[in-house]
Design a protein that fits this description.
about 350 residues; alpha+beta; Ubiquitin-like (UB roll); 2 domains; two-stranded antiparallel ribbon; disordered C terminus; binds FE2/S2 (inorganic) cluster
Length: about 350
């Protein structure tokens, strides 16, 4: 093992479990720019520490994957640069990655034994050097530290630090993105007076201009996605030809394939029904009684307006696995604008 993996900071970082991390995320939430407040939490739901632990269970890993019905790519080590492409702060990833790696390699005693302070400190350094508002860097810096903990200093440092969004997306301002998320279609007054069915826009990847499809009111997201006939299996092997950009299998809350994070328009989605609430906890994605959480099953969610979502690159049915290890999903809060729940519920 390299000296960087053994640095005092890495020793300190590795002591943080999932509950400690959720506490850090909630403490930082009010300092994160609105454009990334929910996105940062969604990233932490997509990449829990238990997932890394499961990948490291070398013995019987193949059997375990079959038991938990793991599909897609759950290995963060292969996605160090890309896992957070939906976070606005991703635009500053090259600089954040270098600063986090340098912090990790430092052999001196940390100035503070509070991880929140250390994340703020690194974000502040990058803000000074890039002349970017610190609020746009705190979320991506926290993600950088969690990625470092999961993949180790050597793999983290070895990643190229590349961006995974289009040139079009790179030029967008936070305000432009927020106003796009707030915008609503629906046919306007003419459609209303004519009694026409309204159709809305579902954006499934903010990093690319054409990554959207239309949804007619009353239709589930997965059904609406089928109108998009682009070659999505090429980008994500879980997508079946003809099913569109949202990976789907059962369409009945049974398989967990269709989970998504909601970046915008959450209040335009139908409330979670008891089946979706039960199943989404059984999959180990989120465990909450909130009516409109940040994580949803696209096969159960209907929209009454434009919605912006993000698709995680893996899925599993891991609730029993976590229960066997007495691990809580934790962290749940419907939106970073709401008061965080400090004491995570075990399921
Ligand atoms: S497609 Fe199976 S849970 Fe939604």
């Amino acid at each position: 093992m390299s000296s960087e993996n053994n640095s005092p900071f890495m020793g300190f970082l590795l002591k943080h479990d999932q509950d400690a991390w959720w506490s850090v995320v909630h403490k930082l939430a009010s300092s994160v720019h609105q454009v990334d407040r929910d996105a940062t939490q969604i990233w932490f739901y997509f990449w829990p520490l238990w997932l890394r632990g499961m990948l490291q269970e070398a013995a019987g890993r193949k059997k375990l994957f079959e038991e938990l019905e793991v599909k897609g790519d759950p290995d963060l080590a292969r996605q160090i640069d890309s896992s957070h492409a939906f976070v606005y702060g991703h635009r500053y990833w090259p600089q954040v990655k270098v600063a986090v790696a340098e912090h990790a390699a430092s052999q001196g005693a940390p100035e503070s034994l509070d991880l929140t302070d250390q994340i703020r400190s690194v974000a502040s350094q990058v803000a000074a050097s890039t002349k970017v508002d610190e609020s746009l860097l705190i979320g991506i810096t926290a993600i950088g530290f969690m990625t470092l903990q999961q993949v180790g200093a050597d793999a983290f440092k070895a990643a190229e630090g590349k961006l995974h969004i289009s040139d079009w997306a790179r030029k967008r301002s936070p305000q432009n993105i927020l106003s796009h998320r707030a915008k609503n279609d629906g046919g306007g007054l003419f459609a209303y007076l004519k009694g026409l069915r309204k159709d809305y826009t579902i954006t499934f990847n903010e990093g690319f201009k054409t990554a959207k499809f239309k949804l007619i009111e009353g239709v589930q997201l997965t059904q609406a996605a089928m109108t998009d006939q682009a070659d999505h299996p090429y980008a994500d092997s879980r997508c079946e030809p003809g099913d569109g950009p949202l990976p789907t299998e059962c369409r009945s809350a049974a398989c967990g394939t269709c989970w998504i994070g909601v970046l915008g328009g959450n209040d335009r989605l139908s409330a979670v029904n008891p089946l979706e609430q039960r199943r989404i906890a059984r999959f180990a994605y989120i465990d909450t009684e909130e009516a409109r959480p940040l994580i949803r099953l696209a096969c159960k969610a209907h929209a009454k307006g434009n919605v912006t979502v993000v698709v995680p690159p893996w899925n599993a049915v891991a609730g029993n696995y976590l229960q066997g290890k007495d691990i809580a999903i934790g962290g749940h809060a419907a939106s970073a604008d709401e008061q965080p729940v400090v004491d995570p519920r075990r399921h």
